[in-house]
Amino acid sequence: MEIVSNFDGGAIEVIELRENGELDLALRHDTNAPDFRQWFCFQLLGARGKACKLSIVNAGQATYPDAFEDYRACASYDGRRWFRVPTSFDGERLVIEHTPRTMTVTYAYFAPFSFERHQKLLKRARRAPWAMVRELGRSVEDRPISLVVVGEESEDKLSIWVIARQHPGETMAEWFMEGLLDRLLDEDEPLLQSLLGRAVFYLVPSMNPDGGVHGNLRANAAGMNLNRAWLEPTAETSPEVLCVREEMERIGVDLFLDVHGDERNPYCFLAGCEGNPSYGERLRFLENLFEQSLLEHNSDFQDEYGYDRDEPGGGDLRTAGNWVGERFDCLAYTVEMPFKDNANAPDEENGWSPERSMHLGHSALDAIVDSLDALRGDAVFDGEQTQESQVSEDG
Ligand SMILES: [Zn+2]
Fold first, then answer.
1. Which residues are catalytic?
2. I want to staple 275 with a disulfide (CB 3.0 to 4.6 A). Which of 143, 248, 314, 317 is the partner?
3. Judgement on whether residues 192 and 334 belong to the same structural domain of the protein
4. Which residues surround ligand 1, an ion (CB under 5 A)?
5. What strand order describes the sheet that includes 87-89?
6. Based on the domain organization, do 90 and 182 belong to the same domain?
7. Whether the predicted model's global pTM rises above the 0.85 cut
């Protein structure tokens, strides 16, 4: 038997492999970031038909140990079709019990989204005559930070920004992005023509390609949590954020989604900008509009469970959602999907999956379309206008 993890997105340490199928493994920490330790992805070779017990012995020292409660590991025989395998956690060891049906099986914290698949996604975008790919800058390790632009750019149009995988181990975020792009690149998509007459999409499918390749949960190659770098990004430690922020300043932002996965919560949910200094009625209205539309369009989405709401003024402006919302006075949401499953609609075989992530990305386009009319200006406040918005509408 052999464990292999020296591939794109791979991460595990081998402690001991015993012939009886009892394997002791350990989580390793993110590159230059000893505090982040959760993602794993590795292949087990030569164990076909053997009842294996894979113990990750330091799971209790993970960044979010409680995230392993009610969690089941993901497995695949071909790297395409992923399913869940029996997993238990006693507070210290995460134990995967599985009898592989083939000589090679991959286990992962969640279905990986490889750099190769990322490049294929960009290639598809380049082929569509109404889309293009721009390189905004380079990561710490010199990988391109690619922006997919969908629609003909014009200052009159609304600028819709969606970014994913600031936290590289939250691979469901790029699956979401693929689902969204599937619609935007489909010439038979009925909404496409009218939509692209009014809006341009700016999509960053992978904010942290270095972290993805290294198999990190949250950090980039410099050990930075990019979703705490938006207030003061630097060329040395967070060039990925710096180049995206510069492009946003150049173009403007009318709607922003920052897509993530949540280790603990078994739900899909949104986190808004209620803690921002300039948050008010207009943004509250827009948030509600978007959220209600997503509820209508996707049965996995819900608005009951999520993060505690920020106190007024308590928003963390180092995060993308808060920073963009404040800087551009726009609708800005952090989108969260589960690593485990949707507890409202559990799937015994697959748990939360790439397919469901893609479907949520697909539905996000409907919520974006439903919000477009309201993004700029105050005309939408009919019936419940505040004094302030009345004044600006008239003026
Ligand atoms: Zn995240």
1. 336
2. 314
3. yes
4. 167, 170, 260
5. 13-17, 22-26, 52-56, 94-98, 87-89
6. no
7. yes
SS3 state at 153: coil
Residue whose C-alpha is closest to residue 253's, from 313, 147, 331, 316: 331
Q: Are residues 86 and 182 in the same domain?
A: no
pLDDT of residue 378: 60
Q: Mean pLDDT score of the chain, rounded to an integer?
A: 95
User: Ligand 1 mean position to 325 CA, how many Å?
Assistant: 17
The length of the chain is 395
Alpha carbons 300 and 179: distance in angstroms, whole number: 15
Beta partners for residue 262, in sequence order: 338
Per-residue pLDDT tens for 316-375? 999 999 999 999 999 999 999 999 999 999 999 999 999 999 999 999 999 999 999 999
Tell whether 149 and 268 lie within a shared domain.
Answer: yes
Helix, strand, coil abundance in the chain, percent, nearest 5: 30, 25, 45
Instruction: Tell me the pLDDT tens digit for each residue of 266-293.
Output: 999 999 999 999 999 999 999 999 999 9
pLDDT score recorded for residue 391: 38
Ligand 1 centroid – CA 198 distance (Å): 30
Q: Which residue from 134, 126, 132 is spatially nearest to 150, judged by alpha carbons? A: 132
Q: What is the pLDDT of residue 89?
A: 98
Mean pLDDT within 211-239: 98
Task: State the pLDDT at residue 377.
Answer: 74
Domain that holds residue 322: 115-381
Q: How far is the CA of 176 from the centre of ligand 1 (A)?
A: 13
Residue 205 shares a structural domain with residue 150: yes
In this structure, the answer to whether residues 187 and 103 fall within a common structural domain is no
Distance CA 342, CA 301 (A): 9
Are the beta carbons of 163 and 223 closer than 8 angstroms?
no
Number of domains composing the chain: 2
